[in-house]
Specification:
18 strands, 7-stranded antiparallel β-sheet
Length: 418
Amino acid sequence: QVRSVTRMPSPLTLPFVYSHSVTSNPLLKTNPLGFWLAVSRSIDSFGFTERDCLEFRRKRRPVKVGFLDGTYKVMLLNETLPVGDLLREIARKVNLVTPLGFALAEESPSKTALRWLDTTRSLREQAVAEQHSVIFRMRFFFEDHPPSPKDTVALHFYFLEAREGVLKGTIPCTEESAFELAALQLYGERGAFDDRRKSAPQLDLDTYLPARVRGQEGVLDKLLKAYQSLSGVSTASDAEHRYVTICQTFPCFGLALFPLSEVGATKPFLLGVGRGGLCKLNPEAMTVECTFPFAHIYRWCVKGTSFLVDFGDYASEHGYPVLGLDAGTLGEEISHTMTEYVSFLTSPQANRSPILPVYHQHSVVTMALKITTSTCGRSLASVATFPSLRTASIPLHTRPKMVCFPSRNGVGASVMKN
């Protein structure tokens, strides 16, 4: 059965398969809203039956895209492209130079939860309905310094992320820093302090100060005093740049937080994943208890509901060779976050201030190789060649959805996985 959702065929259309009975086609079990057909494949290769329905649809559809400042824009996006390509298209529409570190998240109907979207799959393949909105925001903080004040768009996105962390308490700060940050935010919104104003401005303190500071007496007077004494700022971009620079001095800035507990222990904690590695945080005080740099992590894997981190030669420094965490359903997301950071830190883009790889006098570089495998555990084809100072051997077999690390043995000039 073939039908068209438009009156006449258009060059902007592609065949699209949809079925009300997901059992009629195995591909629809993982794509309940259907999937776009590849033009290079024949109809017979999809295994269609009489119960399936093919629709001719326009490739571009209006998508409601939200931002952290609470604004929304309806953009006409190509629905057949993976989310990674949509990120570049959205960045171009908002005059952002590069979407490095940005991601799309589906917003729940109640707007209280977000679901990060896979950059390698399209919106429809991830069951993002047409009436749902997506949020364009930063997920990975690769850079160790804020954008230049001249790059106002990128700087504003950094500012929005920093402000949300401060207001929600995920970036804890001192009382003095909280008032200074609020004063900088006021300067960015209202300009310099006006001494000629006879009455105090009406401010919603919820949008300027964290909850633990708002409950004190004389909060408005302290905020206005900090606003009046602010110096060294001339433009709104300077205020946002200084805001982000101060936030980057806090240890919790840029961390992706996951509520976990160690295997066999009942005391919960927060696992932070960031540019420098992993860290354990006290969920109540939001203080860092211990850190695990990426240079000390030999490998990691997800096993059921557990997330395992192997420290290799650095086991003695951390007290145990393997850190076992009860991650529940968060294991894959933690692994993906770590892989993204390691991939960036080992790439040429991070050469300006490299953290990885770390070279030692008598050790071999450990590089993260992301290898696509089939169900039998072997790579389908040659993935890539990674030059290194020394070659490390790679296992002949790798399991699906695993991150493969070279060992510390081997001799040669390059590493290649077939």
